[in-house]
## 1
Amino acid sequence: MPWPKERKYLGKPMPRVDAPDKVTGAAKYTTDVLPAGMLFAGIFRSSWPAAKINSIDLAAARAAPGIRAAVVAREGPRRARYYGEELAAVAGVSRQAVEDALRLIKVDATPLPFVVDEMDAIQAGAPQVIEDGPNFTRPAARETGNVSEGFSRSASVASGAYSAAVELHHCLEPHGNMIAWEGDQVNAWASTQGVFSVRDGLAESFGIPQNKVRVICDHMGGGFGSKLGFGVEGALCARLAKAAGAPVQLMLTRFEESLCVGNRPSTFQKIRLGADKDGRLLAFDMDALGSPGFAAGVSTAAGGGGADIPSPFIYKVPSARVRQANVAVNAGSARAMRAPGHPQASFGMESIMDDLAAKLGIDPVEFRLRNDPMEIRQREYGIGAEKFGWKEKYRKPGSSPGPVKTGIGCAGATWGGGGGRGQAEVQVNPDGTVEVRCGTQDLGTGSRTVARLVAAEMLQVEPSGVAVRIGDSLLPPNGSSGGSTTTANIGPAVFNACENAVAELARLSGIAEPRGGRWLEACRKIGVNPLTASGRWQPGLSSQGVGGVQFAEVDVDTETGFVKLRRILCVQDCGLIVNPLTCRSQVYGGIIMGIGYALYEQRVMDRTSGVVLNPNFETYKLPGPADMPDIDVILLDMPERGIIGIGEPVTIPTASAIANAVANALGVRVSDLPITPDRVLAALGLVSGLRPSWAERPIPA
Amino acid sequence: MKAFAYVTPQSPESAVELVRDDGRFYAGGVDLLGEMKEFLATPRTLVNVKALPGSGEIGFDAAQCTVGANVTVADLAAHPRIIGALPGLALAAAEVGSPQIRNMATVGGNLAQHSRCWYYRHRDVHCRKKGGAKCFARTGEAKYHSLFTGCMCVSPAVSNLAVALAALDARVCVLRGRGVDKLTVEELYASAWTNPLAHNSLGPADLILRVEIPIPAGGRSTYMQVSEKSDFDWALVSCAASALVSGRSVSRVRIVLGAVAPVPWQVAEANQLLEGRTLDDGLAGKAADRILRDATPLEGNGYKLPIARALIRRSLQKLVA
């Protein structure tokens, strides 16, 4: 790798460049952009989970005090396919005026039968979610090797049924935009993971040239994959701004965030796994389904994504049969969510791995070492088990004494990451200061800080002398922040721009090595116009394919079902660590999200009314400070691999490790996420009158 | 929310007068503002009762503690004499919401809070509590609902303070018309069992002034709950207990469950079962059996039975520990 061997700034902890602005409130988010004459806007949504919308009457809303524009989401008769689908929008001089006007909109609708439960939706005769297609189609199974032979050769076979509920992104900053037209030019302040994808979406939906659109995102409060596109709410905002001839701010509410801006699809997996007597995997068979919402994986205005999962994930099984299907239900559509598909696949696979290990009487870590083909994870299991005290702590499942039982579990993961399309520009000023310009955005990973550190390192200047401009579609394109690629895009692009700047500076100044002691002298020779140099992502500075393992320790109260998470240990490979502080921050965030997936989070749909029953943080339960265990993070510093993204891999195995720890504590498995007290008590056989499990219902052929 | 008028009366009598104009009493606003944002409540007038003289005070005399309706839940939880003399009440207060909520929430508001049923709280579900035809929870998603369901609306009473105060034989002083009624907690909630539209027995112009809590010599009390999260979460089941304790022998026992019925749930027979007895785990289990005997769980909430049982046993053990 061409990264310098001796590094002054890279790999040293540096607080976020924008931390002072964030903690003092100086940082401008979309809602802080308030131009004179700006209007507020709100969306009128379907209160039916399914309906024929015959007509929408906006007259009264339009005539309401303070209202300046009202538009329907789509002209003519249409169908609403989930509770909360966008039907119309209004803009007015205050939030109160908008809220009052929304209540004046009249809709002539014919309610239709609906279905919100996956297992209901796949049964014959279920209400049809999409007009012209079935709720459920089953592609043929993919088979590698000979699965029936694999099972017949197996000394032991485990089978299980594992499910996980729909998880919502719930970015702390909701989705939204502030959009202003100036003649045929349009400027948007967006809460987005992609200033260029919003630019292109805006240009396309209005048929205007891409160079007439500017998108700005100084700061944003989380996306997790749900803010990659322009979205229906963005298009409505732009249309209202155009109709009203005034800037319009349209931010969604927490309630709306629960309905229509993405989610992680549910998953239902029936798995069999076989191994020989030495614990070597021989055969894997999975029949799975999941629901990405009403569109069943068809792209929607802001992306989409199916419910398919990459099982058997990280393990090498000589024979594998995988059959999976997407189910349409009358609910909001999925969007990419932090490592799409992977936590689901990990949970099913790591669960059955432990179930099979228990049958074979093999220690779970040892079982993984025999079957995990990745050298890095092999090492990480060694390091982690030692640090965690695995050998001393491990007991046979269910053998912890007393009513509050302790258990431990582990799981591994991988993720791609890597870059490929970053661009940046470096400007060196005659006074020796530096500006880095990069059309990326800070999803929360610390993009400004990354760019500053790389430039400071490569130019050998003080980091405080490097100003970084990002979050603007007028800057050199750098791609959306998705797939854990941002740092691996920015880093090499800035690296390359710095290389070019140094070469240009040497040429202009006549100083062969302008960096170091002669920097100012060289810069003064630039002349009046600052020097600029552009750079592109180059191979050899980043890589992909990380390995990570996590260990969990829990206490489970077998009388109340309460799970107390005591500890998570994460051992993670992440190549060249640019900034340990922001890197660890990503690891913590990923683990915390995984804790939510394991123990708390689920979107609850009501079969009778078709609504989301928990559209708030009261009953959609996010983990809080008191729920946090001790989290230990060991980063394998491997600078020779270059930069690798870290945001997604670290959230993948957390829930799996926790679920395995709970199973180890109890001696029985809670096979549905989240693992809530009711499910723990049910798994222990302490609850009667249970609704039949999904696993007892057949999956039609 | 709908626009409203805001008034700040200086006496309980004028507060009651002002609230008659389609008004609601407003103190911490924790419960009411949520209802207004969802258009579940659209009062014409908010009658701010925070300025009522003396309503924010905690007082003690030899045998009784008096807590004003505007004492915040945070102050109640942190009050040294409450913690010392009435630990069950302090523990119940400490489990309410989050620090921010406890700082705003008042004793009166906590007692008078409305149903947290997710069907009731949903802006587009017209359930029986809102005058609709059916109770959606009875055949729907009832994970957080009542175990005792022989009533028309199965949303449970979730006030932590009500559960603790019931176990302490407290009286809730309510201004009704021109007089002050001293209600038991049971009386304060009785209507929630009989009338599906009611959250408690308070009329629209009934104003909670204060709570009076006896402090008997030798009395002990406790409170515990199980939630899905470690903090900032409603109880799945809560349990308060009090007794006169001498060694491991108990008398005048009160065991009250929360989040299992539209009213704080107390079974006199179970209390009497323990009268003058030496407490052990077997006896505590018998009391739990009696308390839970008539439970009729809904689909999806039978798990509350083992939790309730564990909490009853543990609370009683803690009383004599």
## 2
Amino acid sequence: MSTAIETQSLYYRPGKGFELGDLSISVPEGSVYGFLGPNGSGKTTTIKLLLGLLRPQRGSITVLGREVPRRVAEVLAETGYVPEAPHLYRSLQVAQAIDYHCGFYEHWDAELAERLRERFYLPPRQRVSSLSKGETGKLMMLLALAQRPRLLVLDEPTDGLDPVVRRDILDALNDAVKRGDATVFMSSHLVHEIELICDWIAVMDRGTLVVELPMTDFRNEIKVLHLRGVPPEPRDPPFSVLRRDGDTDGEEHGAVRWTVRGWRPGMESYFDGTDATVTEIADVDLENGFVELLRSFRRGDV
Amino acid sequence: MQPIGPMFKRILFTQWLWARVGLLPAALIGFAVPVLSVQPFNDPELSGAWVSFLLNQLDEWSPAYPILAAAMGLLLGLTAWSADHRVRHVYALSLPLPRWQFTLIRLGAGLLLLAVPVVTVWLGALVASAAAVVPMTLQTYPNALAGRFLIASVMSFAVFFAIASGTSRTAGMLLGVVAVVVVAQLFLQLFGVGVDFIGPIVDAFTSWPGPLEVFGGRWLLIDF
């Protein structure tokens, strides 16, 4: 499997208080990769490093087969980027901003740009400075998509937008994903959004990668076990216990829930010979799984 | 990779948009100054005393040229980068060309726009030369005046472009150094120490072969 983005032992420390420590991620080509993490976890810093906007102090970055920052211009020629904060020239009109942008990209799709402009209701004569936050987000997405990029890097593209605009942007992104011509690397702290479209996820916290895995593995491996009886203190279980809830006072008929990671079919046998029985194995939605992963990471369990 | 042509065209267009408010009036002024300055020259038979008087009158227009050149450099230098500063250069840095190339294109676009006032000064000087009735002892120098205006404009643009391309921290450091030098000189004067280091610095910049020498002296369209 070829990779669109690969970092190895990436280290960056902008100053006191935060550092991105030994980050190694691998984004498969053609995937829709969700980069999750709470605010301040290092998502934007990582993206800026990937696109050469910051220089790493250690480690290596390869994007679309090219070393960054050495060959970043070639990478950027094939990358559509939507930053967290608006980055377009505010004095330009919408049509001028589109025309300006298209001058830099060889594979610019003018037809797609016009279609998206109409779909997003962006008046061509309106100045970027007078666009709403949602309209600015749509314009940035339009510019990124009309480049026909091999890689789309989206930094919280729908953060702070109303649901209608968010849906417009995600629909446009979904269309691009369906065409299958780009790898998407999308950071967000909106877990539901990631769950909708991503097939890979990585979770960051405090500058460290907590987990990176395909979405199917995430869904299959993280489960809630409903236990009845007296469960054992988890000793060398074949899975990680992220969280224990419910009645844990040792009552014989108490119901207990364990949120576990690394679950595989057949692991129920772990409870054989104990007083506990597994009554249900339930899926966890991404948000709960994400929260439990972060909590156990912060406790030092992951 | 995209060829340079389309990129240059777009960058030139944006710099034109940002500078045109100042550039168009400056172009008009650049045309008007030489034309207006030669109005008193309407008699070919003037005596030496009158010639000196007229040249002095003409000299009163002299400061208009270096001031206009400096203003053009300032305008085009600052507007070349102000939009990028507002978005912390994220847009420029995310475009698919190396930073040095982007900077060179911005520089080239600014120089091209600088041609607008230079050409109007030259045209104004040509029209003025044709219209003025110049005493036999004098000559007109429209090309030399326009050439000097070009050099002064380019010099001013280069300085302000370089300053504006840096971060506000760099600009602050530069101003800080200047302030320290000035304050140090004031203290030395206050305590009666007869050391003048600002004078030689200013001289080094404003006398030949200093880079600002072109701004000084007389800027005369008509001379001996």
